[in-house]
Amino acid sequence: MAGWTTDEIGDLTGKRAVVTGATSGIGTETARQLLRHGASVTITARDDRKAADTVRQLGGDVEVVSLDLADLAGTIASAQRLVDDGRSIDILVNNAGVMVPPFSRTKDGFELQMATNHLGHFAWTATLWPVLRQGARIVTVSSLAHSMTKTLDLRALVPDGDPRRYRRWRSYAESKLANLLFMKELDRKVRRADLPVVTVAAHPGLSSTNLTRTGGSALHFLAGAVSQPATAGAWPSLRAASDPTLTGGEYLGPDGFRQSRGRPRRVGMTPAAKDPVLAAEAWSASEAATGLSFPAT
């Protein structure tokens, strides 16, 4: 479908969408377009002030859930509140993330990027599963950076267990590879269980957002010089969230030069991301890390 535009999203009236990390950049634009096409939208935020500003900016039918993905207990509690309210979730966009920050560990002992980008979303989705398994579409936002690593060292999923010296780009790349391994393994599980769940992934290409600021001024300048705006960066996520021709397991990204910018299309992923053995091992390690059983049945 060359030249996809947001006009192809279709009518989402009556559907409920949940978008993590929607108080800036691609998350805000994703929420904006889902609202524009009729969905009711729940956004997550760590900062109440930013959440209030985003709600005012978006208008429409928007709810806010407090969520800090780096806090596993808090993440599980926030997700459980959504389950307990009894409403279905039709679209879940796991968008929130951090990018190449200085080294830090979460209260649970994990490196911040792996904790936020992967483990937090794993726990979030696992806890939401009772309302997702009924027929949701789950979008996992990954990155071109997943190709910067050849594998996922499972020691990164053990609190205080990774003996390697911290390298911010390697950690970011591994967390984004973990996103794709999660998406692919979830797709395998729902197919085996014959569940009406579609799980897909997307990446925004090179987009100039607040996320690139944590990578330093040089990265942010480069992103601003060669990238596309957040409105375009949200297109792959939006197509992933709405395209009825996607059946699960697909990965979407921009169609331009080296997938840096352009209209969303199906794109490839590295052999590591498609490795079912590594994906199963990462799933088991993520269950152990979060303390959750997630059979996805």
Q: Please, could you describe this protein's structure?
A:
- 51% of the residues are buried.
- This protein starts with 15 loop residues before the first strand and ends in a 7-residue tail after the last helix.
- The protein is globular.
- Helix 2 links the parallel strand 2 and strand 3.
- Helix 5 packs across helix 9.
- The mean pLDDT is 94.
- An 8-stranded mixed sheet has the order 3-2-1-4-5-6-7-8, sandwiched between helices.
- The protein has a single domain, classed as NAD(P)-binding Rossmann-like Domain (Rossmann fold, 3-Layer(aba) Sandwich), CATH 3.40.50.720.
- By secondary structure, the chain is an alpha/beta fold.
Task: Describe the structure using short key phrases.
297 residues, alpha/beta, Rossmann fold, 8-stranded mixed beta sheet, 9 helices, 8 strands, 40% helix
